[in-house]
Specification:
Blueprint lengths: L3 E2 L2 E4 L4 E6 L14 E7 L11 E6 L5 E6 L1 H4 L7 E10 L5 E12 L8
C-alpha cells in the first residue's frame, strides 16, 4: 500500500475527528485489532518528535478504520494567523510493522470566537 497525500484544514481550538483508513494493495481493510494509529503534526519536517504541535493515537474501531481526535488544547496555542503544519498518519500493526498511510499539510485557520459558549 502506498501513502496517500491529503491536504486537511481545521479551525484552531476546535475538536476535530480525522478518519484514518488502512487498506492493503487490493483495497481491502486491514483488520488488525492490535494496530495503533498515530497522527503527528509539526511545523517543520526536521523538527524532532518532541517538538511536535500535536500527536494523537487511536486504536482500530473497525476493520482498517480509526478515529484520530485533535483536542482544542492542541491547536489553541497556535498564532491567530493561518498556520500550515506538516502531518502524517502511521499505523503500527500488532506484528510491529509500521506503515505511513497518509501525509500532507494541515492548515489551521484562526478561530473568530475566542471564548467558548
Amino acid at each position: 500500500m502506498s501513502a496517500n497525500e491529503v491536504e486537511l484544514t481545521m479551525i484552531r481550538g476546535d475538536t476535530v475527528v480525522f478518519q484514518a483508513t488502512f487498506t492493503d494493495d487490493m483495497n481491502t481493510p486491514v483488520d488488525d485489532p492490535g494496530a495503533t494509529y498515530r497522527m503527528t503534526g509539526k511545523n517543520q519536517l526536521g523538527d524532532p518528535d518532541s517538538a511536535e504541535v500535536f500527536t494523537v493515537t487511536a486504536s482500530q474501531s473497525g476493520p482498517g478504520v480509526a478515529s484520530l481526535i485533535v483536542q482544542p488544547s492542541m491547536t489553541r496555542p497556535l498564532p491567530a494567523t493561518p498556520t500550515t503544519l506538516l502531518y502524517d498518519v502511521q499505523v503500527t500493526e500488532s506484528s510491529g510493522r509500521i506503515t505511513t498511510i497518509q501525509f500532507g499539510t494541515l492548515t489551521v485557520i484562526p478561530d473568530v470566537s475566542i471564548t467558548t459558549p
